[in-house]
Automatic annotation (TrEMBL):
Domain GFO/IDH/MocA-like oxidoreductase, residue spans: 142-286
PANTHER family: BCDNA.GH03377
Protein name: Gfo/Idh/MocA family protein
InterPro entries, A to Z: Gfo/Idh/MocA-like_OxRdtase_N, Gfo/Idh/MocA_oxidrdct_glycsds, GFO_IDH_MocA-like_dom, NAD(P)-bd_dom_sf
Gfo/Idh/MocA-like oxidoreductase N-terminal domain mapped to chain residues: 7-133
Keyword Oxidoreductase included in the entry's annotation: yes
Alphabetized Pfam families for the sequence: GFO_IDH_MocA, GFO_IDH_MocA_C3
Alphabetical UniProt keywords: Oxidoreductase
Amino acid sequence: MSVRTLGVAVVGFGWMGRVHTQAYTRVPHHFPHLGVRPKLVAVAEEVPGRAEEAAERYGFGTATRDWREIAADPRVDAVSVTAPNFLHREIGVALAEAGKHLWIEKPVGLDASDARAVADAVAAAGVQGSVGFNYRNAPAVEAARDLIASGEIGTVTHARVRLFSDYAAHPEGALTWRYERARGGSGVLGDLASHGVDLARFLLGEIDALTADTAVFVPERARPAEATAGHARAAGGEPGPVENEDYVSCLLRFASGARGVLEACRVSVGEQNNYGFEVHGTRGAVFWDFRRMNELGVSRGTAYQDQPVSTVYVGPGAGEYAAFQPGAANAMGYDDLKVIEAYRFLRSVTENTPYGTTLTDAVHSAAALDAMLRSAESGGWVSVRP
Ligand SMILES: NC(=O)c1ccc[n+]([C@@H]2O[C@H](COP(=O)([O-])OP(=O)(O)OC[C@H]3O[C@@H](n4cnc5c(N)ncnc54)[C@H](O)[C@@H]3O)[C@@H](O)[C@H]2O)c1
């Protein structure tokens, strides 16, 4: 089998930049039949020395502080945009216009107009675009979707999607780009609820309308004295205001008629990546918790009342599980979801047809988040139209 080389680049080398890079290198290990070997051509990073360090560690041929060099580099076919949210629109549009395929992190910009601008640029350029909604790549989530679609739990009546984390709970958590409107956009909405909306749509279809409430629980944080990556601390730094929400609760009405509740919080002490869903149908239910990624709780049968819930360990028949382990109940991890995402992105590029998430998913998610903000302001129900 001939193996094609595809030039890839990464813009922004913080947490996600590293995860995307590692995912590219692992795709040929897990998906050899794809026949593509990503070549790490270039990395762009604003913090002095960080791109060079990434090049040294992972083998990028070129390290730069200017992402525009990547847009102009003919050796680059595809680019990961893993910079902060306020840069997604400018960088995403410019790269698409330069003919680069895009794997861009959620939430794709500061709001729905940014996501739409990137989606339009990708469509106009005829390049492929994938988005970092990694949780739908979990084999158990795909199995849950299949179970729901098969009708085995009956007609879906209602669902809960939760995303609770403590990553911003520490009072010394630094005032990074995430807490500023201009650089982060929304707070927990873009950071976590964006994933929740994508999961809800993936499992249950489009959302028609919603009503939401938001709150800021840690109103002030210390400014970091030096460059940050991920969730840094800044004890003793000059205090500044948190400009976006820590918490959202939201009622959802799906086009199917099902009802839903979405709740997300970034300052939940005692919660570490408590992400998951519970979907109820007229005859059964299905439950998933990210922390037990390959397990589903499934209630099915004809009992209606006192119907037991079984734990199902998903295996090689579910999603892309077989690319990782030969039998059920071998644990997979977060990084594996990104390997699946990288594979689907590269497959979209090689087959020139979307495979996995697209910028349309980003526009739908961002439109729902915008609607949540409007509803939190007005206090009423808001229709969701991308
Ligand atoms: N899918 C997920 O589960 C997930 C998880 C975390 C973050 N994200 C998303 O990934 C993106 C990055 O988040 P992160 O946690 O990696 O943030 P981070 O702060 O760790 O990394 C961002 C990096 O971009 C760099 N950067 C800033 N301006 C730049 C520029 N002009 N050119 C090049 N580099 C620049 C920063 O110096 C930093 O190293 C965000 O959009 C975030 O929402 C997604």
